[in-house]
Each structure stands twice: as C-alpha cells, then as structure tokens.
Amino acid sequence: MIEIFIHAFLSLLTLEIFAAMIVGTLAGVVVGAMPGLTTTVGLAVLIPFTFGISPPVALGLMAGIYNGSTYGGAIPAILLNIPGTPAAVATTFDGFPMSQSGKSADALKIACYSSALGAMLSAVALMVLAPPLSLLTLAFGPAEYFWVAVLGLVTISVLLGADPLKGLISAALGLFIASVGMDQMTGRMRFTFGRLELVDGINIVVVLVGLFALPRVFRMAEDAINVGITKDVLKLKGSGSALGGLGYLIPTWLKSGVIGIIIGILPGAGGNIAAFLAYNEAKRVGKDDAIEFGKGNPKGVAAAEAGNSSDNGASLIPTLTLGVPGNSIAALIMGGLLVHGLQPGPSLFRDNPDIVYGFMIQMLLTSMLLFVVGGMVATRIFAQALRIPQTILAPMIVGLMVLGVYTVNNATFDLYLMLGFGLLGYFMNKRGFPLAPLVLGVILGGLAEQSLKTALRISRGDWSILVSNSISQIIIAIILLALLTPVWRWARAKFADRSAREARYSP
Amino acid sequence: MSVTAKDIMTALMLMAFAGFGWQQTQGLSAEAAMFPRLALGTLAALSGAYLLRTLAYAGIGIGARRKEIREEGAFFTNPYRFFVCLGLILAYIAIFPTIGYFISTFIFIPLFVLGIGAGRPVVAIISSLGFVIFTYFVFVVLLNRHLPNDFIIDFLF
C-alpha cells in the first residue's frame, strides 16, 4: 500500500495540481468567510468548472475548498459572532468573546492552527482506513450494491435533518429524477416528453448548482443586505505572543480530532455535530480553567475548530469506499467524482489508484496549506471579503452559475432546468425538506436501479436474491437500525418528559 | 396560512405528482417502468404518511391529539424582490445566448442590484466591470471555455 501512496504522490508533482490546491484552499477560505455562502454553495458552483480539467486537478480544487472553507467559517465567527459556515457555530462561543477582549488575532491564529491540525489528522485517518475498507467491498455483488445505495439514502435522510419523513420524501424524489432519460437496460425513453436534451438524463451538475446555489441567491435578494462589514470591525488585534506558546492546546487538539474523525465516519453526521461534541468535551475537562468556557477560553476555539475540521477527511471514508457520503458536502464531492466518470466504491481503488490515493494525499496537503494561507496577512485579506455586500455578491454568483452550467453541454435548456431546480430547492427549504437526500437520490439512483436489475436477471426474477446473502442481511439490519433511530429518539424524549413531570408533581 | 394547511397542500401536491408520474409510466414495458414505479410508489406512500401525520397533529382523524394550530409568517420574506430576482434571472438566461455572456452579465449585475432596490448604481457598474474582466481572464483566457460570441469581445480581440 505504501508503494501505491508513493506512486500517487509522485503523480501529483506538477505545477498545475499544486496551483489547483493553492487556489482551491484560498477560494475555500473566502467562501467559508462569507456568511452568505457555505461550502456546499462553493462546491456546487465550482464543480461545473472542473469539466475539461483532469481529475487530479479538479480533485485538488475540491480538497482545497473543503479544507479552506472549514477554517474560513471561523473568521466571521470570531470577528462578528456570525458563523461563516454551519460548522463554525461552536467557534463563536469563545472566539467572539476573545475578539471582544482585544485578542482577535490570537483567536484567528488558534482557529487556523486548530483547523489545519484537525484536517491533517482526518486526512491521515482517511489514508489509513479507506484502503482496507475498500477491500471488504470486493465481496459485494449487485444485491449488496443495491442495499448499499439504499443504506446511503436512508442514513442521510433519517440522520441528517430534523424530520426523517421529509428526508425520505426528498430521497424518493431524487430517485425519481434519476430515472429520467433512456433506460440503460431496455433503451426506452422515460419522462423525456420528446426533449432530446433529456435522453441522457438530467446532468448532476445542473441539479447540484440549481438546488444548492440558486435558493441562496433568492434569499440574498429577499434580504437585500446592502452593506458589507465596515473597516473598523475588521481591525485585528492580538497579544503578539509567539506561536510556540500554543503547546498547551495539544491535548485539546488530539481529543477533538478523534471525536471529529469518529463523527465523520458515521453517515449523516456533519462538522457542526463534531464541533459541538468536541467543544462540550473540552468544556467538561476544562471546568477548572482560569478563563471560563464561553468567556474567551482559547481551548473553546481550539476544540470547536479541530472538531469540525477533523470531520472532513473522515467523512470521505464511507464516501470513497461504499459510495455512502458522510455528510452533504461529501455527497457533493461524490457528485464531483461522478462528473469525471469516477464511481465511488472498490472499482475506484482498483481502476484509478493514482487518482483516489492522490485525492487522499491532496486532502492532507491542503490541510497543511492552511498553516501558510491562514497567516495574519492572508486572514486580513480574507476578512476584506466580508465587505462585499450580498446584493452585489448574489448576481455574481448567478453569473458564475450560468457560466458553469452552460459550458457543460453548451445548452440553454440546462440553464432553464437549473432555474427549475433552483425554484424546487427554494420551496423545499421553505417547507423544511432537506436537499442532500434528493441529490444523493439522483447520484445513487442509477447505481441502485442497475444493481437491482442485474441481481434480478442473475436470479431469473427471484426477489429472494436480495436477502439471501449474509452481507445483504447485515446491511438490511443496519438500514432497519437507522430507520428505528428516530423512533428511539422520540421514545427517549417522551420518557424524559414524563420523568420530569413526575419529578415536578411528586410530593 | 397555518403550518397545517401548508403541510396538507404540500402532501397533496406530492401525491398528485406521484400519481402523474405513475400515469406516465403506463406506456413503458414492465422492466423499464419498474424502478420509476418503485420510486413513485415510495413517494406516494411517504406523502400519505406525511398527510396523516399532519392531520393527526391538527386534531383530525383516528388517534389524533389536539395540538395548537401554528401560524407561520408569509411564505416569501419579500415577494417583490423574489419575483424581480426570478424575472431578471429568466431574462438573463434568455438573452445571453443571443448577445453574448459578457455583455449580458455586465448589464445583469447592476440591473439586479437596482431592481431589488439596493446599492448605488456606480458601485454596481464598477463591480460588474470588475467581475466581467475577472471571468474573461480566468474562464476564457486561462481555462479556454467556449461561450456564445460577444460582438464587443470579438471586435476588441
């Protein structure tokens, strides 16, 4: 395995790939620093532009954006008490109080180093765990792949959002959208309504950009926040202490890193959960610290940032090996892989080792780049991005979206489709339906259908092939466990509620 | 409109969509129709469960519990700005293949800013010019993307 990593690393030694990683990391920090944007929007807008670029360059850009935006979200969290990304919410608890007491530069420095180290730990976990896990999947047949697709859809629908029923509805919609176009097995046209542009189905790029980026634009237009942040707010002040003084944070980093890695591997959990759990653990251990948590304790910033960053690489473990994304960002990266004809799973490791092992190394290298780009000068520059009013940012995002989607097929029809998905995404957001399960349904729908039909052909129409293998039975058991999780949570909440009422009214 | 009413409408729309989709599969062979019907059947069943849950929360139907009918704010935060934004994007998509990406984008950005009633015209025009120059350099010069011809760009270069 070491030889494969060395070979993959050598294949990354081109100026183009390194430039892509640097540009991706810088772009990621800027995207993360802007409260109006999220990592998902940044990736959704970027992915169309990776058409025509070689996969290692495209993946370098994506790795950079993923790691960069995780740190970028800390900048407004610390300076303005506004998390730039959902994963940076926990960073505000101690980051903003540090900024208020005149230590914004120190807080940003701690956030930068914590993000970088958390992401590095996560990338190492990815490199160590993903390859052996991919070997396990060699035993999978079509029936098992069908159930893996169902597992991915169920876990992200049920565990990711607040309402599992809406998540499952979203996933079913996605599966339907995936069936638009020519059926691969029979050659029959499905739901094309005579449009030639739909013969090959709906391009995943159109779905990604429309669903994730356009609703954000509509919201920016409705809010019409006309002014960016003023210069005075962005003055960075610090104690001037040397970086070497951060050694006391090492235990916090390590513990938060492990928490983030475990959360990242679990499908459906995201960086914000990892950040909260890491923060709570640091608070529990540090209750006797001189500075109280929530009042500007540097360990609070370190735990939150290391926790949310160490989710990054780990969330790609189930994504690359099983095709089951760890969170919605991983689902987008999966979409990015598919755009380049790279299907996650064991075939990815077997047929494209340089690309997939190279991607894992790129996750490590871009996390190390944070030490460089997250320095004081760079942070001052990124903080300036906060001065762009959202009313100007919104049409620029539309310009990038139109450019990106049009250049996929040079077809205006794709732009109207994108607008349609944008409206769908807007209404889904308003009604509380999560978007990630729909995207995953579109991504996994083809795999699920093909696997199901192949399994039924092998068994000559006997559906028991889907439950006869022990691996299938194990995956089905995990699916049932995931479906029962909301029921268990509901029962636990009911029990806690009843106990509280009994305690209140007991003599 | 209450949350309950919106949820009922949403559930009914989803079920109607599933029904429409199912009807479209009538002309397909059994093998071609299998997977879409699985997805649509699942959608219909889940939407039905969503409807029943909504009715139960509203105190209607078997096993229902009386719950407060929650009122929600208006669907649109600002309907005027939403529809102006939608209209401008639609117009932008419609005209850009004809007059070119860079000219249409240069016009679109300030129109968008002014259309939603925010921002100063001069700032919007300068930002638009900067954005167009940036995208030309990055996507046409560096990345060699092919876009509908801009007669001004063709004239200048």
Explain the overall architecture.
The complex is a heterodimer of chains A (507) and B (157). With 507 residues, chain A is mainly α. Chain A has 22 helices and 2 strands. Chain A has helices spanning 2-11, 15-33, 39-46, 55-72, 74-80, 89-100, 104-136, 142-160, 164-178, 204-223, 250-265, 271-285, 298-322, 328-339, 346-351, 353-373, 376-384, 390-409, 412-430, 436-458, 465-468, 470-505, and strands at residues 181-182, 189-190. A two-stranded antiparallel ribbon of chain A has the order 1-2. In chain A, a hairpin with a 6-residue loop joins β1 (181-182) and β2 (189-190). In chain A, α3 (39-46) packs across α10. Chain B is mainly α. Chain B has helices at residues 3-24, 30-57, 79-99, 101-115, 121-142, 151-156. Chain B has 6 helices and no strands. The chains are: A mainly alpha (507), B mainly alpha (157). The interface between A and B is large, with 54 and 61 residues.
Write a brief caption for the model.
The complex is a heterodimer of chains A (507) and B (157). By secondary structure, chain A is mostly helical. Chain A contains 22 helices and two strands.
Percent of residues of chain A in helical segments?
over 70%
Largest sheet of chain A: 2 strands, antiparallel
Poorly predicted tracts of residues of chain B = none
- Tally of helical segments of chain A: 22
**Overall pLDDT of chain B:** 83
* Oligomeric state, counting identical vs distinct chains: heterodimer
If helices are DSSP runs of H or I spanning 4 or more residues, what is the number of helices of chain B? 6
> What is the percentage of strand-forming residues of chain B?
under 5%
The strand count of chain B comes to 0
Q: Strand sequence of the main sheet of chain A, in spatial order?
A: 1-2
Distance between the termini of chain A: 67 Å
| Strand-pairing-aware structural class of chain B | mainly alpha
Counting DSSP E segments of at least 2 residues, the number of strands of chain A comes to 2
Could you say which overall geometry of chain A the principal axes of the C-alpha atoms support? globular
Biggest interface found: A-B, 54 and 61 residues
Helix share of residues of chain B?
A: over 70%
* N-to-C span of chain B: 56 Å
Q: Report low-confidence residues of chain A grouped into runs of 5 or more.
A: none
Class from secondary-structure proportions of chain A: mainly alpha
Largest sheet of chain B: none
